[in-house]
Design goal:
Layout lengths: L2 H5 L7 H14 L4 E5 L6 E4 L1 H6 L13 H11 L7 H13 L4 E6 L5 E8 L5 E7 L1 H23 L2 E7 L4 E5 L3 H5 L19 H17 L3 E8 L5 E10 L3 H7 L4 E8 L1 H22 L4 E6 L5 E4 L3 H5 L3 H4 L17 H13 L6 E6 L5 E13 L2 E11 L1 H46 L3 H30 L13 H19 L7 E8 L9 H17 L5 E9 L35 E8 L6 H6 L17 H11 L3 E6 L5 E8 L7 H9 L6 E4 L3 H13 L6 E3 L7 E6 L6 H10 L4 E5 L12 E4 L5 H11 L4
Parallel strand pairs: 16-17, 21-22, 21-23, 23-24, 24-25
Antiparallel strand pairs: 1-2, 1-5, 3-4, 4-5, 6-7, 6-10, 8-9, 9-10, 11-12, 11-15, 13-14, 14-15, 17-18, 18-20, 19-20
Helix pairs in contact: 4-5, 13-21, 14-15, 15-19, 16-17, 17-19, 21-23
């Protein structure tokens, strides 16, 4: 190609032209704006499109050959707050432009944007200006500054003071004005001096403060101390002083460690006063607690481990607190004594489950010298969040009190027994009188007619004597009629016929207001049969009706209701008062027992008489107890009824309030074609015929299981043994104290023995088959269900 042809090629097609276009494209698309001035006449050589956009330049502006002065005039036009006049502003820009080296200029535009211009000299003498849009950065800094000012304002008015320490000089370089409110001194008085060299610090604390702060500043370590200092008003105040090194990556890397520390000073005078009062209150309370000799104050965790015991434990139990602290309730002592603490275990388990305070209970413990001590315990759970973390309680020594009560009860019983014996003697004398009279008549006139009449009278008297002795036997030995398997049939008609007898009995016995006492019968579709002898049932209902009559001094109404028992009649419903010692039934509604839904017949006697107070209700079933005048009652009425009901596996309940009348219900089982009374009794009480029920090593568990056994009606005895004995029928252990191999040896070596394991089973352990596991919460109902499921019979 000739030179002419080469010259004809457009510049954009030439290599150097394409390179220039690319450079221009790169410069026009850059984030920064730039403008290049010549070295001599300071004219604009070139600029990119971003520069034209920033300063709103026309496309032919470069053709006007602008200088740096023209650029300064453009800047004046677009800046929001320039100098008062254009010449001054231009001169300011030119002055900066002519200075050698680098310099910056900040432009705040009318539209709110902020530009930062930076100038630098090029190697060839030209001067290059770059402009960057820093609007977002400036807004962030403005917001940060505003937030800092707001926080500083809050700090200045807060009851704390902040400060900055220069680690190199060890002096305070900055401190908030709020230090005046804390110390009474102005903030400048703290500047440019070591923080620890304050003369207002209490003399007893000066050396301590100087050592801690001086060492921390030198080593760039944090500190947190409390000390006293004098206020300007001469009062002594307590302060908490805390400081931390301030991290600075640039300085730390250059100098190797932090150069400043930031700290705060807080007035804790009120807190110290409150702590002092709390300590004084705690001291007084502790002295009060430790000065009471018959009360034991204690704390224990959820595992029953004692964490606190008041010194009075030595007076009550003979042990020093240190002898028992750290041990668990119920652990066997060195003197081989055991404590009967099953009520405590039940209360702890229930409190953990319900997170509520339990009613007070009594436990039997053994003094170090061997005598028995009865404690009345009241405790409550300590709750953190939603969990029970421990217990606090007080135990009162009631051994002497209970002894006095027993003595008074025995004295009262003997007095009532004397009255009862007198009444019985009177009745026997009255019954023996016709016998003696009849015998005398027969001796004088042995004619057949006289013999027949006298024999009939003698027979009636002996029948009354037999009836009286039968009542005594039923109460004293819990005996019933000859045939305990008898059944009351056609209950609806039977009760209607018996009603006449009841009404006649009231009229014949009540010589006060015979016409004012009414007996009303309500028959509400009861079952047709009840498993009880009809004569015994009649005797029980008559006693209740007579008691109801006597409770209404001015007459009233007695309702006798007969109906079907509810499905859960074997359980004690809420709100019913009864004698726990004599009427003891499953205490869990979900008890795993066939008797839960057994059909029954309910007889209810309700009166609107005077009712009973709490003390009377508690003793209502006690033999010889009566609120009637002496000679009017033997006190065997309710005791006799209770014995009759229990003899046929029935349930008796009493509900009464003073002034609101009394309601007594009797529930009797319905006979089953395939089950006689003996079988039903076995189902209800599940008597296990065995010599012992052994709990391994843990007397606490043994005591608890023993209580469950008694409540379940199981005829067994609980002992403690490391190994089962030949007489045992059930062996109770725990997975924590018995290995799977030991359990296998027990199962293999004792055929017929039921192994009951209380605790959570580890599925990875090779436990043998045939073990009865009791997992979950340890309560009486669960243990009773487990024992019944063992199904061990003699």
């Amino acid at each position: 190609m000739t030179s002419e042809q080469n010259n004809a090629v457009p510049d954009s097609k030439k290599p150097e032209g394409r390179l220039a276009d690319m450079q221009r494209l790169i410069l026009d698309t850059a984030d920064e704006a730039f403008c290049l001035f010549s070295a001599g006449d300071e004219r604009v050589i070139t600029y990119n499109q971003r520069f034209a956009d920033f300063f709103d330049l026309s496309s032919d502006w470069l053709e006007t050959q602008p200088t740096v002065t023209d650029v300064a005039r453009v800047m004046y036009q677009i800046e929001r707050s320039p100098e008062p006049d254009e010449p001054s502003y231009v001169n300011k820009v030119l002055d900066r432009h002519h200075r050698p080296g680098r310099h910056e200029i900040e432009l705040r535009l009318h539209d709110g944007r902020v530009l930062v211009g930076r100038s630098q000299d090029a190697p060839s003498g030209e001067r290059l200006y770059t402009f960057t849009d820093v609007t977002n950065e400036r807004r962030f800094l403005w917001q940060l500054q505003a937030e800092r000012e707001r926080l500083m304002s809050m700090v200045e008015h807060a009851p704390v003071a902040y400060y900055i320490i220069d680690c190199k000089s060890g002096t305070v370089t900055e401190i908030s004005r709020s230090v005046h409110y804390l110390t009474g001194l102005s903030s400048p008085s703290f500047l440019d001096r070591p923080h620890e060299s304050d003369e207002q610090i209490h003399p007893e604390d000066q050396q301590f403060v100087a050592d801690v702060i001086g060492k921390a500043v030198i080593n760039r370590e944090s500190y947190d101390i409390q000390y006293r200092r004098y206020h300007r008003d001469e009062s002594i105040r307590w302060f908490r002083d805390m400081a931390e090194p301030i991290p600075d990556p640039d300085l730390d890397e250059a100098l190797g460690r932090p150069q400043q520390m930031a700290g705060v000073i807080i007035d804790i005078t009120r807190q110290k006063a409150a702590e002092r009062k709390l300590r004084e209150s705690e001291r007084r309370f502790r002295e009060l607690i430790e000065g009471i000799s018959d009360l034991i104050f204690y704390e224990h965790d959820t595992d029953r481990q004692l964490t606190y015991l008041s010194p009075s434990v030595q007076h009550v139990l003979g042990y020093q607190p240190r002898d028992l602290l750290g041990s668990r309730f119920g652990e066997q002592k060195k003197d081989k004594t055991r404590w009967a603490l099953e009520p405590a275990l039940e209360a702890v388990q229930t409190a953990i489950r319900t997170r509520s305070r339990q009613p007070q209970y009594e436990v039997t413990m053994v003094h170090k010298n061997g005598r028995t001590v009865t404690l009345e315990v009241m405790e409550y759970p300590v709750i953190s969040g939603t969990d029970v973390v421990g217990f606090r309680g007080v135990g009162r020594d009631v051994t002497t009190l209970r002894g006095i009560q027993r003595a008074l009860r025995e004295r009262e019983r003997l007095a009532i027994l004397g009255t009862f014996a007198g009444g019985i003697a009177h009745d026997l004398n009255n019954l023996l009188l016709p016998i003696h009279a009849g015998l005398d008549t027969l001796e004088r006139d042995p004619t057949p007619e006289r013999v027949r009449s006298r024999v009939a009278a003698i027979r009636r008297a002996t029948e009354h004597i037999a009836e009286l002795t039968t009542k005594l036997l039923i109460w004293t030995r819990n005996e019933t009629a000859d045939d305990t398997g008898q059944i009351t049939r056609d209950v609806p008609n039977w009760i209607k016929e018996a009603l006449t007898f009841f009404r006649e009995s009231i009229r014949s016995d009540d010589d006060r207001h015979p016409s004012l006492v009414r007996v009303q019968l309500v028959v509400d579709d009861p079952p047709s049969e009840a498993r009880i002898d009809p004569d015994l049932l009649k005797q029980a209902l008559l006693n209740l009706i007579l008691n109801a009559r006597d409770a209404m001094a001015t007459g009233g109404s007695i309702e006798l209701r007969v109906e079907q028992s509810p499905p859960d009649w074997l359980h004690d419903p809420a709100g019913v008062q009864h004698d726990d010692r004599l009427l003891d039934f499953p205490d869990s509604e979900d008890a795993d027992d066939d008797t839960v839904d057994r059909a029954g017949v309910r007889f209810t006697v309700t009166d609107d008489g005077c009712g009973m107070d709490e003390s009377t209700r508690e003793r209502a079933f006690d033999p010889f107890f009566s609120t009637k005048p002496r000679g009017k009652s033997t006190g065997l009425g309710l005791a006799l009824v209770r014995s009759i009901v229990q003899s046929v596996s029935g349930v008796m309940r009493i509900n009464s309030e003073l002034g609101e009348g009394t309601s007594i219900t009797l529930d009797f089982p319905v006979p089953d074609e395939d089950t006689d009374l003996k079988t039903f009794e076995d189902e209800r009480s599940r008597i296990i015929e065995g010599d012992a029920l052994v709990s391994l090593r843990d007397p606490w568990i043994a005591a608890f299981v023993n209580n469950c056994v008694q409540k379940a009606g199981l005829a067994v005895r609980v002992d403690i043994s490391d190994r089962p004995q030949p007489r045992d029928v059930i062996w109770v252990t725990e997975p924590d104290v018995t290995t799977p191999e030991e359990a296998r040896q027990v199962v293999d070596g004792h055929p017929g023995l039921t192994l009951l394991c209380i605790g959570a089973r580890d599925s990875h352990e090779p436990w043998p088959d045939g073990i009865l596991w009791l997992e979950g919460s340890l309560d009486a109902a669960a243990v009773q269900r487990a024992l019944r499921r063992a199904d061990v019979t003699g």
